[in-house]
Amino acid sequence: MDNRTFHERFLDAKSQPSPLQVFLNEVAKVTYRNPQTIKKWATGEIEPDGAMKTLLAMHFGTSVDVLFPIPSENG
User: Fold this and answer.
1) What per-residue confidence (pLDDT) applies to 17?
2) In this structure, is the dihedral angle defined by the CA atoms of residues 57, 58, 60 and 66, taken in order, positive or negative?
């Protein structure tokens, strides 16, 4: 039987990383970049260079074109 209090369970859950944090840390580990940089790549604030795009495509098992599509002129 688990004898932790409700509050202890809350604190345990609170201390776990969110899925977003897990993703950012995973990509940061692969690219040797800061998780904040990864977040900026994901939000479009900055764009990774070609080598990083290739590395990420390899990591995720897809192509650069799929991972980083060129926006169409029509929106």
Assistant:
1) 94
2) positive
Q: Is 47 left (phi over 0), alpha (psi -120 to 50) or beta?
A: beta
Distance of alpha carbon 20 from alpha carbon 69, whole angstroms: 22
CA distance 65 to 14: 37
Per-residue model confidence as pLDDT tens digits over 23-57: 999 999 999 999 999 999 999 999 999 999 999 99
The dihedral over CA atoms of 36, 49, 73, 65, expressed in degrees to the nearest 10, equals -100
Residue 60 corresponds to which tokens in the numbers above?
């995720």
Instruction: Please state the pTM of the whole predicted model.
Output: 0.78
